[in-house]
Amino acid sequence: MLLFKKESDLRIYLQQKKEKKALIGFVPTMGALHNGHLSLIREARRETDMVVCSIFVNPTQFNEQKDLDTYPRTPHKDIELLSRVGCDVLFMPGADEIYPPGLNTRIDLDFKSLDKVMEGAFRPGHFEGVAQVVKRLLDIVEPDGLYMGQKDFQQLTIIGYMIDQLGIPTKLVSCPIIREENGLAMSSRNVRLEKGLRKRAVVIYQTLLQAKDWIQEMSPREIEEKALKALAIPGFRPEYFKVVDARTLQEVDQLEKDHPLVACAAVWAGEVRLIDNMFLS
Ligand code: AMP
Questions:
Q1: Candidates 30, 33, 38, 40: which one to mutate for ligand 1, based on the most atoms within 8 Å of Cβ?
Q2: What is the mean pLDDT of the chain?
Q3: CATH 3.40.50.620 intervals, the chain
Q4: Per-residue confidence (pLDDT) for residue 246, from 0 to 100
Q5: DSSP assignment, residue 257?
Q6: Is residue 39 within 6 Å of ligand 1 at its C-beta?
Q7: How many angstroms separate the alpha carbon of residue 125 from the centre of ligand 1?
Q8: Are 62 and 36 within 8 A, CB to CB?
Q9: H or E element: which one contains 87?
Q10: What is the pLDDT of residues 158-178, one digit of tens each?
Q11: Whether domain 188-279 has CATH 3.40.50.1820
């Protein structure tokens, strides 16, 4: 695996590969890699000739300095895992490579109501930062395929919208959520969970599974109310539980044919904020 820290070096290298018609798959991450991330690399390997992974803890998408400061960083382990899974190129830029002074990287795009709900409502500015960094990375890598996890469902939807609206010639590939043995969605933040909380955090997965049953006989609002109660176990504080249209991310009043619904949750487990989601139909 080759490691690049500078945008210009990476561009030159990738240009040579593109001239030879290699299809490039790209997996952007913030590091502290786990099996969820590695599943994206594997999927990209299956579909493309060359996989580029980036590790960059993007300051512009954090709305709490403490969360940025305590975000886990394990670069040596990440490099080893990526080499083992067959990643071809790792891009590990510093902030001044991604946001060089004088370069305007802000995205001027109206995400309609996609970025106002759920994560957008609780983390002001978060998706602006996500769109900004993903657009910047896409400009540098110019991949054929962008591989992202359904784990961050709203992020996936927003990036898909940006790609469409800006006419970016990259295919967005959604990859399934990889879970720990007990069902907890893998997340870099899980290592910050104290042992007991990590065990009990399975309540999020269990509640999502229950919502799948409940949708047969209850309205989305009733489900949300029931789920919030189920999630409020000692040590846990649900921030939201929403049943929304999987395309528009807007609340719906009932299950309708051809309108897939997804349940999305954000829950504080002690000091750690966890998100998860599941298609209900
Ligand atoms: P992050 O490092 O948290 O920014 O995540 C980088 C990419 O990995 C994003 O596309 C995430 O959706 C994806 N990802 C994170 N956790 C998982 C998981 N448990 N299963 C599948 N994809 C994941």
A1: 40
A2: 97
A3: 2-175
A4: 96
A5: T
A6: yes
A7: 19
A8: no
A9: none
A10: 999 999 999 999 999 999 999
A11: no
Q: In Å, what is the CA distance from 62 to each residue of 46, 141, 258?
A: 32, 23, 35
Mean pLDDT across 67-88:
97
Which among 42, 152, 177 is the best mutation to test ligand 1's pocket, defined by most ligand atoms within 8 Å of the CB? 152
Helix (H, G, I), strand (E, B) or coil at 25: strand
Clarify whether 37 is annotated catalytic.
yes
| pLDDT value for 104 | 97
User: Which one of 2.40.110.10, 3.30.750.24, 1.10.1760.20, 3.40.50.620 gives the CATH number of domain 2-175?
Assistant: 3.40.50.620
Residue 97 to residues 8, 61, 100, 257, Cα–Cα distance (Å): 9, 17, 6, 47
Residue 22 CB contacts under 8 Å (≥ 6 apart), including other chains: 48, 49, 50
Q: What would the pLDDT profile of 189-245 be if each residue is shown by its tens digit?
A: 999 999 999 999 999 999 999 999 999 999 999 999 999 999 999 999 999 999 999
Say yes or no: CB of residue 151 within 6 Å of ligand 1. yes
Confidence of residue 257 (pLDDT cuts 50, 70, 90): confident
Task: In the chain, list all ranges with CATH 3.30.1300.10.
Answer: 188-279
Residue type for position 214: W
